[in-house]
Specification:
By secondary structure, this protein is of the alpha/beta class. It has helices spanning 18-29, 41-53, 68-82, 105-133, 153-174, 210-222, 234-243, 245-255; strands spanning 9-13, 33-38, 58-62, 87-90, 136-140, 179-185, 227-230. Helices cover 48% and strands 14% of the residues.
């Protein structure tokens, strides 16, 4: 087995619950000093208590990733407290389900601000510190960044933007010694997909444990891979989008609406 990469410090956005919480706890378990960012002060406070109770290091700052100034201040505080930054895991996102015609414009725009602009804000805020350490970034995209799905227009648009942003800035960051991995998970068992308001297409198939995303992502980042598809069958969806997108269109029409 290849040795694990040596990360001394990491920041995880969206770390109050779900995949982000899983990343924070997994990294702390490896001896990494972890900084947590989320809009939920109670949520990240609970994660910090859990990590510290196990004798590991964690700090937290409450911030909305869509607010560039607020996020910049939070990142600077955390990096100063941690003594640097080796790894950024950007998970913060909202789903914003709803058909395009029925969804309020403000709700659509909120998803774009949080999911897409929030990604740009997070990378930009962390970059000065990552340059110093020749560190790494992992950005959570989605299978919705591979093909757009009914009742997920805002989320699909934002995540396509995240994937495109990652492709565009990856070579720029590499010239500065920083690597970037884009993560494309399928259906993951997290609070983001809980509740009764999720669209029909997200009720299909078996949900995978969040820990799988954590493990696969950290392995990919450690190996400096540009992309990771979780599970690997997501590669098939990506291939179909390029070779036979009408098949995915048919699937979206068939299962993307209420019966």
């Amino acid at each position: 087995m290849a040795p694990r990469p040596v990360w001394k410090t990491a920041i995880v956005t969206g770390s109050a619950s779900g995949i982000g919480r899983g990343f924070a706890q997994a990294l702390a378990g490896r001896g990494v000093a972890v900084g947590l960012v989320d809009v939920s002060a109670d949520g990240i406070g609970s994660v910090v208590e859990t990590i510290r109770a196990q004798g590991q290091r964690a700090e937290a700052r409450c911030a909305d990733v869509s607010d560039a100034g607020e996020l910049q201040a939070a990142m600077e505080d955390l990096c100063a407290m941690l003594g640097g930054l080796d790894l950024l895991i950007h998970c913060a996102a909202i789903l914003g389900p709803g058909t395009f015609m029925d969804q309020a414009a403000a709700d659509f725009e909120r998803v774009i601000r949080v999911d897409l602009l929030g990604t740009a804000n997070a990378v930009r805020a962390a970059l000065p510190w990552l340059r110093r350490s020749c560190g790494s970034v992992a950005c959570l995209a989605s299978t919705a960044a591979v093909h757009g799905w009914p009742a997920l227009s805002a989320y699909s648009a934002a995540k396509f933007g995240v994937a495109g942003l990652c492709d565009a800035i990856r070579p720029e960051l590499r010239r500065q010694g920083v690597t970037l991995t884009a993560v494309f998970p399928l259906l993951i068992d997290t609070p983001l997909l809980s509740g009764t308001s999720i669209p029909p297409i997200l009720r299909q198939g078996r949900r995978l444990p969040a820990q799988l995303v954590v493990d696969e992502t950290l392995a990919a980042v450690g190996a400096r891979r540009p992309r990771v598809f979780i599970p690997r069958t997501v590669r098939l969806i990506a291939a179909l989008h390029g070779l036979a997108p009408s098949l995915l269109d048919w699937y979206g029409r068939r299962v993307g609406f209420e019966p």
